[in-house]
What we know:
Elements lengths: L1 H18 L12 E8 L2 E3 L1 H4 L3 E10 L9 E6 L12 E5 L12 E10 L9 E4 L1 E6 L9 E2 L3 E4 L2
Parallel strand pairs: 2-10
Antiparallel strand pairs: 1-3, 3-6, 4-5, 4-8, 7-10, 8-9
Amino acid sequence: MRTSCFIPLITIIFLWAGCGISNVKPGDEKPEITFESIQPSTVKDFLTHGKNVVEITIGFKDPNGDLGGDSTLVVKALRTPSSLDPTGGISKYSVPDLSPRSGSKNITGKLKVRIDNLFITTLDTIQVFPYEIYIIDQSGNKSNTITTSPVTITLN
């Protein structure tokens, strides 16, 4: 008789212990980004033709709502390294404060990144490359990395 009472007691202990476990999975506080667009996809070389601008639009989701302030958006041009580009194709941008003032911390939206004065870093008359982008939020959580469609820079 004692054995039959013992089994339900063990089951209740396991169920009770399970109630204290959070449903939040590790990594759920990381922001998530998606590639939306790059406009225009072709520009004329800045050094030959003057000012040009490319705008990249990315979507974002942040479950803990701490994008902005000390957050950093990292954009890397995936092209052959060159002495003409001392940054190695990497640019860092501050993210405007997107934290909600009240209510749900789970925020979503779109960010636009403006890249000015693109130029060819090789001896070619055309250069084609995508960008790689990620965000680091105020808590130091790094988002997934996305790759844009390619941008083309031409001399003509």
